[in-house]
Amino acid sequence: MRTARNPILACVTAMLLMAATFAGAAETPVTTPPASPFDEKDAEIVALKKLDWKSVDVTKLDLKSRCVSLVVLNKILDMVGSKAALREDLLMTYIEQNNLADEYAKAMPSADNQAHLSYEQSQQVAAAALKTPRVAAEFGDDMDGIDPAMLNNYFTMYTKTCTRNWAEVMEARCAVRSMAKFLESKQMLPAFGKWADQEMDRRQKLHEEDLQKKQAAYVQTEAENQRKREEIAKKNKEESAINAAAYAAYKASQAENMIPPTRAYTESGGWSDAGDYGIWNTGYYSNAYWAGGAYRTGVRDRYTNGRWSRPSSRRAR
């Protein structure tokens, strides 16, 4: 759960995000993305920067490769965005706990007006990553065997998803850079790093404790449910034995009083089999699964709708 934001800090951060977003959209992208104080120690970010992405011409890729590249891009954005959100949360918490929110607002650190890594450049990074053995082994055959019409649909879908995800990630990274530079200007960034490590450990411990409590509660609930199921099964077995004995006695009494032959001609006319079929004594079997209006309604609807004759539909993949 993210820490509640200070209203002033949240307002300033939102202004910075908006300014940076419009600046990034209006200006011509530069080839070198703006540096973040955290990037140089981030193994994944460092690996991405080492890729030869600048030489990739995405427009020359075939449709399948472009689709798979977008799948990879979405995975990369999820990874980078998750880290940015974590750092943003920790930075806001640290600034608030140190009563620096007002100072941060008054200082109005300028938004990072350097162009972000553009969406087009992000596509280049993803396409370059797809050429590496590890990523190719995981995603290389994702779109094999899909016809062009379906590929076009996938391309449209993933383009929308990645465009939205990219914008959110860029905004989060802008906020992180802004607050990190503020702490850096006060020579508090190293202290923040130490605090952040301890805070993450604390939160992780609380998270694991919460999971353990939930797991213990689940195990206890499941054990109780199992005990109830066993009690019901035992009761049903006992009742079945009693019912079987009672039914056997009932059949024996019917046999003693039955007029031979079995199919007796009734006074009302016609032959009756009623004497042989005591099982239809619904009063005695009132607890049967088929007893009651709901069951009858279900059977009637099933027959009327004709569902019983239809094969089950399988969800198209």
Walk me through the structure.
- The protein is mostly helical and 317 residues long.
- It has a domain at 7-187.
- It is 66% helix and 1% strand.
- The chain is built from nine helices and two strands; from the N terminus they run H-H-H-H-H-H-H-H-E-E-H.
- The protein has helices at 7-26, 43-49, 63-97, 101-107, 119-130, 133-139, 148-185, 189-257, 293-305, and strands spanning 264-265, 271-272.
- A two-stranded antiparallel sheet has the order 1-2.
- Helix 1 (7-26) packs across helix 7 and helix 3 (63-97) crosses helix 5.
- The chain is flat, with a radius of gyration of 35 Å.
- The chain starts with 6 loop residues before the first helix and ends in a 12-residue tail after the last helix.
- Residues 1-5, 7-31, 261-293 and 306-317 have low confidence and may be disordered.
Count the strands?
A: 2
Structural class: mainly alpha
Spatial strand sequence of the major β-sheet? 1-2
How large, in whole angstroms, is the Cα Rg?
A: 35 Å
How would you describe the shape? flat
H/E element order: HHHHHHHHEEH
Question: Percent helix among the residues?
Answer: 55-70%
What is the overall number of helices? Answer: 9
| Cα distance spanning the termini | 34 Å
Note the quaternary state here: single chain
Question: Approximately how much beta-strand content do the residues carry?
Answer: under 5%
On the 0-100 scale, what is the average pLDDT? 74
- Please describe the biggest sheet, giving its number of strands, its sense, and whether it closes into a barrel: 2 strands, antiparallel
Which regions contain 5 or more consecutive residues with pLDDT less than 50?
Answer: 1-5, 7-31, 261-293, 306-317
